[in-house]
TrEMBL record:
This is Alanine--tRNA ligase. One of its GO terms (molecular function) is zinc ion binding. Keywords: Aminoacyl-tRNA synthetase, ATP-binding, Coiled coil, Cytoplasm, Ligase, Metal-binding, Nucleotide-binding, Protein biosynthesis, RNA-binding, tRNA-binding, Zinc. InterPro entries: aa-tRNA-synth_II/BPL/LPL, Ala-tRNA-lgiase_IIc, Ala-tRNA-ligase_IIc_anticod-bd, Ala-tRNA-synth_IIc_core, Ala-tRNA-synth_IIc_N, Ala-tRNA_ligase, Ala_tRNA_ligase_euk/bac, DHHA1_dom. The gene is alaS. It catalyses: tRNA(Ala) + L-alanine + ATP = L-alanyl-tRNA(Ala) + AMP + diphosphate. SUPFAM superfamilies: Class II aaRS and biotin synthetases, Putative anticodon-binding domain of alanyl-tRNA synthetase (AlaRS), ThrRS/AlaRS common domain, Translation proteins. Catalyzes the attachment of alanine to tRNA(Ala) in a two-step reaction: alanine is first activated by ATP to form Ala-AMP and then transferred to the acceptor end of tRNA(Ala). Also edits incorrectly charged Ser-tRNA(Ala) and Gly-tRNA(Ala) via its editing domain. It comes from Buchnera aphidicola. Its main location: cytoplasm. NCBIfam families: alaS. Consists of three domains; the N-terminal catalytic domain, the editing domain and the C-terminal C-Ala domain. The editing domain removes incorrectly charged amino acids, while the C-Ala domain, along with tRNA(Ala), serves as a bridge to cooperatively bring together the editing and aminoacylation centers thus stimulating deacylation of misacylated tRNAs. It is found in: Cytoplasm.
């Protein structure tokens, strides 16, 4: 009987446990303390610091089953998923590690024993081939002399393009980090014997599949051209669980192993296709595993960084679901299936099942309309293609207008063998960017036509007042040589202490002055590299080339600084409470309050808000010195400084640190110590779009004033309710209960009243030829009750025209009901048109029912009376025309 995938996983752990290895749990898919990686892509990621000698090892021998994701950079398998038999976005990496303990000989012997011994995997020895790094003679000798592998089955792989250490058998995690030569073990799926290494290298029909890679970590790559030796040598191995499962279960494709087949069958059951080997089934099966594990590690769909990768995978899966006829939301329904098939690896999924389902479902609903519209347009445009090339403008139009991802367009085109005009796409994108820049380039209250190719030196980090040269003056967007008293304009200087609005921080206010001239600065904006001081001259005049003193309003700036420093503390506290998936999406820092937008798909509870507040206020009370330094960007990354992922930074960046609690790249101004903030209070939280939350808060004096107002409001409420502040809640609950009881009584009275009205109305029915006519005006009645009265009357009389009016506060609403048989002669909509035409009201409807209303007029009773005459005339006309 073949081993199940879950059994194979456990056997691997058990084998190395017997060899003295400690079983270490899988680390997160989000690499810890490593800015060089988007996701964990290998088993050794969590041990990188140990390999580099930066961290002491707890155990010399370790074995893991590591969750891995390869969707970008050097290791990107996304485009191959579904189209090949061995590639996945998410996979499990079986790995054993030695930290300066055993090295090449033992590592190779352990691998050979596990793979070939009858007690374990029992793979025939003649089915295994070996590759080694050409310059690694020691490894070659171990395989040939000790393990007794024939020379013809050991393949030496050299460097490419005469570039040292650039070989398929020289392993490295990324562009930098631990690396070293490796030896790979291949399984031969062929049924005929071959002895030539040339046949192996040709690998026709993908006969040979790599199943295990043993890396000898003995170097550290500093850069593309620099590699140094490590003091301690280590072993890093990796064997894909899905690949070895395929071998041991006697199938060629990873998608034919037990866990994938069970998942594929559940997807197949929801589709309209008949082919269980359809590519889309494989894509969805792979992608759903990626999605659930990414979300389990607190990454949510967004438009950047890791969140974008998740969104891309989800949308690709949805597109393939659409392709095989799945019309309803389906991804979230697969979560229980994934948990079922993954065995012990699903423990993390079980804890977060509801959260995973909620996020997947929300993303599916959000994207479903985009997918349907985009595919319809794309398929139509593909049919119009010339020389099988899709226009770049079309690709950009789909993305810009409908939000249809470019990678999905690429996916569809690849399947249909259509090429994309990428040059045309880039041109269209750049044109749109230029249009957007023109719209947003200048101060919004002016005519958007100021352009100054000059620089203004900002001295506001250290000075509040400077002497500066006036270089440009604009009035009504026109360049002028001077500005006079009572004129509004923008003044540009060669240097300034005024902070121009950027990074969410509001611009400074203050004054520019010299002798009798004074210009009040009401706002400060950035114009590329220069700064515009926007305001009004209240005395004298200022001319080009004049020297003026520029002085900010220190109290205004200080209030902004308190809120800006508090924003950094808030960001750190949010990540502390809600998880590291929280990233800034926007901010506004003013002198009065701060606003912070961030990624978060869950509802934030009041207890979490209070915890966030508490954490921020603790940091304020610690009175931490706020450290500001200019660092090389790479050094800033090593400090784990938080940055905006869609922002382009220069090589030197400004880092604002509050101990290790908050470290961010920031160009804004800050207070000297956290204690200066005084007090922090969140005043509101809201959701501004899917997956984006907003918090507004106040600090210092404004926070105190806010609490004073709240106290005052509570005191006034308690006075109105005639109770103590301590039992307001109890008093309000009593009022609510009393109100509900009164509402019940009112409904009972209205029910009795309705019976009375119906009886009265039935007694006042008038006959207009064969039609029963009924009209009545109610005063201060609920409109909804008119409908219930009409419904009741309909059951008691046939061939009727009913007009009910309700008058409240000098306005009226009207309801017209006509029996179905009567609509052949008189329509409710026509009656409504006559009434609203004569009352200047509004309304409409259909043949049987119409509604309307307007300002009450004393003519209304007369109009209703005249309606009776009009009905009579209309019926006579129908008779004469033999319509009755």
């Amino acid at each position: 009987m073949n081993k199940t995938t879950n059994q194979i996983r456990q056997d691997f752990l058990n084998f190395f446990k017997e060899k003295g290895h400690i079983i270490i749990p899988s680390s997160s898919l989000v690499p810890y303390n490593d800015t060089t990686l988007l996701f964990t892509n290998a088993g050794m990621n969590q041990f990188k610091e140990i390999f580099l000698g930066e961290k002491q090892r707890d155990y010399p021998r370790v074995v893991t089953v590591q969750r891995c994701l390869r969707t970008g950079g050097k290791h990107n398998d996304l485009e191959n998923v579904g189209y090949t038999s061995k590639h996945h976005t998410f996979f499990e990496m079986l790995g054993n590690f030695s930290f300066n303990d055993y090295f090449k000989k033992e590592a190779i012997e352990y691998a050979w024993e596990l793979l070939t011994s009858k007690k374990w995997f029992n793979i025939p020895k003649n089915k295994l081939w070996i590759s080694v790094y050409e310059n690694d003679t020691e490894t070659y000798r171990i395989w040939h002399n000790i393990i007794k592998i024939p020379a013809e089955r050991i393949i030496k792989i050299g460097d490419k393009n005469n570039s040292q250490y650039d070989s398929e058998n020289f392993w490295q995690m990324g562009d930098s980090g631990p690396c070293g030569p490796c030896t790979e073990i291949f399984y031969d799926y062929g049924s005929t014997d071959i002895k030539s290494s040339i046949d192996f290298l040709k690998n026709e029909n993908n006969r040979f599949v790599e199943i295990w890679n043993i890396v000898f970590i003995e170097f550290n790559r500093i850069s593309q051209t620099k590699i140094i030796s490590l003091k301690n040598k280590s072993i890093d191995t990796g064997m894909g669980l899905e690949r070895i499962s395929a071998v041991l279960q006697n199938v060629y494709s990873n998608y034919d192993i037990d866990i994938f087949q069970e998942l594929i069958k559940s997807i197949f059951a929801s589709s309209t296709i008949k082919n269980l080997n359809h590519i889309s089934l494989k894509v969805i099966a792979d992608h759903i595993r990626s999605c659930v594990y990414i979300i389990a590690d607190n990454i949510f769909p967004s438009n950047e960084h890791r969140g974008y990768v998740l969104r891309r995978i989800i949308r690709r899966a949805l597109r393939h679901g659409h392709k095989i006829g799945i019309k309803e939301n389906f991804l979230y329904k697969l979560v229980p299936n994934v948990i079922k098939i993954m065995g012990k690896s699903a423990d993390i999924l079980k804890l977060k099942k509801d959260k995973i389902e909620e996020i997947l479902k929300a993303e599916e609903i959000q994207f479903s309309n985009t997918l349907n519209k985009g595919l319809k347009i794309l398929n139509s445009e593909i049919q119009k293609t010339y020389n099988n090339v899709l226009s770049g403008k079309t690709v950009f139009y789909l993305y810009d207008t409908f939000g249809f991802p470019v990678d999905l367009t690429e996916d569809v085109c690849r399947e249909k063998k259509i090429k994309i005009d990428y040059t045309g796409y880039k041109v269209a994108k750049e044109e749109q960017k230029k249009r957007s820049n023109l719209k947003n380039k200048f101060y919004k209250n002016y005519n958007n036509n100021i352009f100054i190719n000059d620089e203004c030196i900002f001295q506001g980090y250290k000075k509040n007042k400077t002497k500066a040269l006036v270089k440009y003056i604009f009035i009504n967007n026109q360049f002028v040589s001077k500005i006079s008293k009572n004129e509004n304009g923008i003044i540009f200087l060669n240097t300034t202490p005024f902070y121009g609005e950027s990074g969410g921080q509001k611009g400074d206010i203050g004054k520019l002055y010299y002798k009798k001239s004074c210009f009040i600065v009401e706002d400060t904006k950035k114009y590329k590299k220069t700064t515009g001081h926007i305001g009004k001259l209240i005395s004298g005049e200022i001319k080009i080339n004049d020297y003026v003193f520029s002085e900010i309003d220190e109290n205004y700036r200080h209030s902004i600084e308190l809120n800006h420093s508090a924003t950094h503390l808030l960001h750190a506290a949010l990540r502390n409470v809600l998880g590291n998936n929280v990233y800034q999406k926007g901010s506004l820092v003013t002198n009065a309050y701060l606003r912070f937008d961030f990624s978060c798909s869950k509802f934030i509870t009041m207890s979490e808000i209070q915890k966030i507040e508490h954490i921020v206020n603790i940091q304020i009370r610690k009175n931490i010195l706020i450290k500001i330094e200019n660092l090389d960007l790479e050094k800033a990354k090593l400090k784990n400084a938080i940055a905006l992922f869609d922002h382009q930074y220069s090589s030197i960046v400004r880092v604002v640190s509050m101990n290790n609690f908050s470290i961010e790249l920031c160009g804004g101004t800050h207070t000297k110590r956290t204690g200066d903030i005084g007090f922090f209070k969140i005043i509101s939280q809201s959701s501004i779009s899917s997956g984006i939350k907003r918090i507004e808060a106040v600090t210092g004096e404004n926070a105190i004033n806010y609490l004073h107002k709240k106290d005052s409001d509570i005191q006034n409420i308690s006075f109105i309710l005639n109770c103590n502040q301590s039992n307001i809640k109890e008093k309000i609950n009593q009022i609510l209960i009393k109100t509900k009881n009164l509402e019940k009584k009112i409904k009972q009275l209205q029910k009795q009243e309705k019976k009375y009205y119906i009886k009265q109305l039935l007694e006042n029915i008038k006959n207009i030829q064969e039609i029963k006519f009924l009209s009545h005006i109610f005063y201060n009645y609920e409109h909804i009750l008119l409908k219930t009265i009409v419904d009741e009357l309909k059951t008691q009389i046939d061939n009727t025209i009913i007009i009910l009016v309700n008058v409240i506060d000098n306005r009226f609403t009207i309801l017209v009901q006509v029996s179905k048989k009567v609509t052949n002669w008189i329509a409710a909509k026509k009656i409504m048109e006559i009434i609203i035409d004569q009352t200047n009201g509004k309304g409409g409807g259909k043949k049987e029912m119409a509604e309307g209303g307007g300002v009450y007029t004393i003519k209304l009773p007369i109009i209703l009376k005249n309606i009776q005459s009009w009905i009579n005339i209309e019926l006579e006309k129908k008779k004469n025309n033999k319509c009755i």
